[in-house]
Write a structure and sequence with these properties.
Layout: E1 14-19, H1 23-34, E2 39-45, H2 48-58, E3 62-66, H3 74-83, E4 91-96, H4 102-109, E5 114-117, H5 122-133, H6 144-152, H7 169-179, H8 184-191, H9 195-209, H10 214-223
Helix pairs in contact: 2-3, 3-4, 4-6, 6-10, 7-9, 7-10, 8-9
Length: 233
Amino acid sequence: MTTTTATSSTDDVIRVVLVDDQVLIRAGLRALVDAEPGMTVVGEAGDGDEAVDTVRRERPDVVLMDIRMPGTDGLVATQRISADPDLGGVHVVILTTFEEDSYVFEAIRGGAAGFLVKDTEPAELLRAVRTVHAGESLLSPGPTRSLVAAYATHAKPAALAPTLDVLTERERQVMQLVALGLTNTEIAERLFVSPMTTKTHVSRAMIKLGARDRAQLVVFAYETGLVTPGWQP
C-alpha cells in the first residue's frame, strides 16, 4: 500500500519516493532520508505499478527504486517514468543487491540516473540523492561507468539509436570525456576551457541526442561506438 507524507512548503527540500517490496527496507530508508536536513520522503510503493502511480501523484525530485520486485519490476517502472514527459524532473536511482546486473544497465539506458548497491553507506546514499537532484549522474567514482561499458556493446539495440551527426566536433569530444566519468570541472581542465563552457557543451549534446541526463549520454557514447571499453583519449 502506498503511503505519503505532507509535502514540504520549502522549495529547496529534496522530495523522495521510496520503492521496494520489503517494508523493513523502506522503513530504514525513510528514517535515514527524513532525518537528513533538506530531504523528506513524500511517498512509498511496494511494486512498479504503485511506484509509477505514486511518482505521478507526488512529483518527487528523486526516486530510490528497487529493481527486483514481484509483478511489475523496477526496470519497467523506470522506463514508464522516464517516458512520461510530465515527469522530466524526476531522477531515478536504482537500488540493487547485484552490481554486475544487465537489468541495471537496461534501467540506466531507460532513464535511470545511476545505481547504488543496497549495502551502500548511509552518507553515500544521501550524497547520491543530492548528486542526482543537482542534475549529475552516479558515474564516477563507482561501478556505473564500468557496467555501461561492459553491457552497452552487447545489449540488444536501442529502439531509436541516436546519430552523432548533429553534434559538433567539440561536443563529441566532451561527450567522450563524460563517458569516461569526468566531471565538468575535470573536462574543463582537460580542454582548457571554463566549467561553464563545458556545461553548455554537455547540455547541447543532451538536447540534440534526446538524452535525459548524463547517464544516458554515456550509454549513447558506447552504443554509437564513440567510446569503446578501455578507450582513452
